[in-house]
Design goal:
Helix content is about 30%, strand content about 30%. It has about 160 residues and is α/β, with parallel strands linked by helices. The chain has one domain: P-loop containing nucleotide triphosphate hydrolases (Rossmann fold). It starts with a strand and ends with a helix. Bound molecules: adenosine-5'-diphosphate (ADP) and magnesium ion. The site of magnesium ion has 5 residues, from helix 2.
Length: about 160
């Protein structure tokens, strides 16, 4: 079961609102791909999700480290940015298998750079520019994530 839905995020506040709602509904374990060009808002949305999950510290873009780990009350969250990954095989050296477990929530920017070495996404979140703001499209895989996306969209509309 898949589902496609999109929302308009007129400003950064809207991105933060969406992140807070995603934080309420996303479940462990999950693999979420964040897609879109440089500057589309992938890292901003990751920050918003982390803030929504109760992380009060800073959220660095993992541009150079490739992955930033977070220990949250709900469990471990790994935020990846694979833009600078030269070869997907490097993921092996990163110990990629340890990151994808029954207990982890993974947010992955530039997952296409790790093609063949990453698990399938449960949810793809596609960001694109729309005038001064952004548009976000959800593409869920599996029934439970489809239900989650429906709740997120409903809550966003009501917020
Ligand atoms: N809904 C939005 N409307 C307008 N600007 C936004 C929105 N969401 C994020 N931004 C801005 O867009 C830029 C996105 O940067 P970033 O999140 O680092 O993008 P990416 O990780 O996709 O390269 C930031 O300057 C941020 O303030
Ligand atoms: Mg980024």
């Amino acid at each position: 079961m898949t589902n496609n839905t999109s929302l308009v995020l007129p400003d950064e506040d809207a991105t933060f609102r969406l992140g807070a709602i995603l934080a309420r509904h996303l479940e462990w374990p999950s693999v979420v791909y964040l897609e879109g060009q440089l500057g589309a808002g992938k890292t901003t949305l990751s920050r918003a999700i982390l803030r929504g999950l109760g992380h009060s510290g800073s959220v660095k873009s993992p541009t150079y480290t490739l992955v930033e780990p977070y220990e949250l009350a709900q469990g471990a969250l790994y935020h990846f940015d694979l833009y600078r990954l030269g070869d997907p095989e490097e993921l092996e050296f990163l110990g990629i298998r340890d990151y994808f477990q029954e207990t982890t929530l993974c947010l992955i920017e530039w997952a296409e750079k790790g093609q063949g070495w990453l698990p399938q996404a449960d949810l793809e979140i596609r960001l694109s520019t729309a005038g001064e703001g952004r548009q976000v499209a959800f593409h869920s895989h599996g029934e439970s994530m489809t239900v989650i996306v429906a709740k997120v969209v409903k809550d966003f509309g009501a917020s």
